[in-house]
Specification:
The protein contains 14 helices and 10 strands. The protein is an alpha/beta fold. The chain has a single domain, classed as NAD(P)-binding Rossmann-like Domain (Rossmann fold), CATH 3.40.50. The strands form 2 sheets. Strands 3-2-1-4-5-6-9-10 form an 8-stranded mixed β-sheet, with helices on both faces. Strand 9 and strand 10 form a beta hairpin. One of its GO terms (molecular function) is oxidoreductase activity. This is NAD(P)-binding protein. Keywords: Oxidoreductase.
């Protein structure tokens, strides 16, 4: 359930309006359900070979069965599961290394996986980092950094290579702008009306800051890899429905939210557009923030603040060095 933003386009059809992705390899994190699964399905229908990067759980089998039931036509792309656990940066790095060992190219990386709700109970990983930051920011940072040489290699062969990070319109509402310590990362927002949602927004602003910082790094190194942000819009996803089912009178809440929000197939539009639309499309550019209905949209000033970007990167680098993952940070440095 992702709040905020304009409505997705009701006339856009990815299978009709985007070029074929046959021969391309894509990897979508958190794609065993929700918007991630919808992104994966659209890419399959465009003909790509798509890896479902997700933890080993019952959702993977259900998702693969659902893909076959709902169809991969017209492109008939291939879906393959790849194990990914973003709660621990070491496991995120190992997963990326395993992917590099099994594939010789990577054209599209969509960092979609995220914890939206912690149900009011913010857990921490073994390093003492709250899951909202571990799953939504740090894990993807490490995963992407480890995959970057493969992405660069693919782009160097003349291919259109893209990283698409899923952001959120909620990033503009964050008032707590400290990203320089573990204490800050673990801020609980207890004095706010909806602490769970504030923790989610805080982590998503981190994604925007990281993406903007990486955009500069790729520019300064003359990289051919393009990176974009995408906001899904107000979407009633599989995860949202699962959360609503825990409430009293769940059928009522699902019906009500269904009147106010859009199906996850439409929530995937901005990410698939960012990943596949031709580079000569006026909405597509390096570092662009794609907003429903598939238009480039300005980010909040905090997301563009280079001092906050650098503070986040500096502490991330320090933290990864402390757990012997400093080589990952060097891949993503803007220096």
């Amino acid at each position: 359930m992702v709040f905020g933003g304009a409505a997705p386009s009701k006339t856009f059809d990815p299978a009709r309006d985007l070029p074929s992705m046959k021969g391309k390899v894509a990897l979508v994190t958190g794609s065993s359900s929700g918007i991630g699964l919808a992104i994966l399905q659209h890419l399959l229908r465009l003909g790509a070979k798509v890896y479902m990067a997700a933890p080993d759980n019952e959702l993977v089998k259900e998702a693969l069965e659902r893909i076959e039931k709902e169809g991969r036509e017209p492109g008939l792309g291939e879906a393959t599961w790849h194990e990914l656990d973003l709660t621990d940066p070491r496991r995120a790095k190992a997963s990326a290394e395993q992917f590099t060992a099994r594939e010789a190219r990577l054209d599209i990386l969509v960092n979609n996986a995220a914890q939206i709700s912690d149900l009011g109970n913010p857990k921490v990983n073994d390093d003492g980092i709250q899951y909202n930051m571990a799953i939504n920011y740090l894990g993807p940072f490490v995963f992407t950094g480890t995959l970057l040489p493969l992405l660069e290699y693919t782009a160097g062969s003349g291919n259109d290579v893209r990283i698409v990070n899923i952001g959120s319109d909620g990033h503009k509402d964050v008032q707590f702008l400290d990203y320089g310590s573990k204490v800050a990362w673990n801020h609980k927002f207890e004095r706010t009306m909806l602490p769970t949602m504030e923790r989610y927004k805080y982590s998503k602003l981190a994604v925007h800051l990281w993406t903007n910082n990486l955009t500069k790094r790729l520019t300064t190194t003359n990289s051919k890899v393009m990176i974009l942000l995408a906001h899904p819009g107000a979407i009633l996803s599989d995860g949202a429905i699962r959360s609503l089912k825990t409430l009293p009178f769940p059928s009522f809440w699902i019906w009500l939210m269904g009147k106010m929000m859009y199906p996850q197939e439409m929530g995937a539009y901005t990410a698939v557009f960012a990943a596949c639309a031709p580079r000569n499309n006026p909405e597509i550019s390096h570092g662009a923030y794609i907003f429903p209905p598939n238009v480039a949209y300005p980010q909040a000033p905090a997301a563009l603040d280079e001092k906050i970007q650098q503070q986040l990167f500096t502490f991330t680098e320090e933290f990864l060095t402390s757990i012997n993952l400093d080589s990952v940070a060097s891949n993503l440095s803007s220096d």
